[in-house]
Fold Dihydroorotase.
Amino acid sequence: MQRLTLIQPDDWHLHLRDGANMASIVAATARCFARAIVMPNLKPPITTVEQALAYRARIIATLPCDFNPLMTLYLTDNTPVAEISKLKENSDVMAVKYYPAGATTHSDSGVTDWHRVWGVLDAMQNHDIPLLIHGEVTDVNIDVFDREKVFIEKVLEPLLENFPSLRVVLEHITTQDAVEYIKTTKNNLYATITPHHLLMNRNDLFQGGIRPHHYCLPVLKREKHRQALLDAATSGNPKFFLGTDSAPHAVSAKETACGCAGIYSAPAALALYAEAFEQVQALDKLEGFASFYGADFYRLPRNTKTITLEKRAWEMPKYFEFGKEKVVPLRAGAEIYWVQN
Ligand code: NCD
Ligand code: ZN
């Protein structure tokens, strides 16, 4: 039996939702990951340190085991500069998330133009607080498959030119363009990569019919982009690290005329990464990507416990409870090839 033992990983991009929905999904992450960067796109969004700490307390109250949720603030056009110094004093709130207004689920309070948050970005640069970016333009005239590439050219480059020492994570990258830009830019620019963008391409949206549970943002891209992501994730370059973007939605919100974006990968996230790394014979690179580089970026100690994966197939349930509803996980009713002991 093939076994893989690694230092316990962390999830550097996670959606936990709130209330009963949160209570039904948080254990799926906590049984594998030691820490997670928790996204602030609740409705209403988490915009202050006080709200972030209250949200953190609600998460911890539902937990049966050790798990450290690290919080983020949702950047709006009106975020006061003073909030950034509060954040600096609070080590449980780690970063600020930039959603271009209208780019994705619950992003309507996001940033309409980055020049409007100049003062906040300046304070973040001075206080050395990471900026986490959903990197897609929202212009409806730009093809949905090009929105990440155009964001890099039109927004990210000028932003980084003006804030050269701001530490930035381009979240859930999906394109060869993003990989190339991150590899070659001199700035403090890093990226997270999801398991679904490593394992699927845009054909998976239309496999025998329309597949709402494969719809996420940024949307799945062509095979050449998947290959570039796989190369980046398995390269051992510490600029690329694990962030699942596990984003559960109730079945009723996915299987409908205008379905929500988001893929629920938490129940098998690490096994899915292992499968992707195995495709290119790079299982030896998984530990760095999953357990070291993200902690190093956030200047946190690496974990010390280990976990073990075994190569043994099991069937992913067709759905899980999600508050009063159900959520369909990635690979529902199909095989997962690795299992955590
Ligand atoms: C996320 C969600 O549902 O909150 N959806 C997604 O498709 N990734 C939001 C996000 O990270 O874009
Ligand atoms: Zn996300």
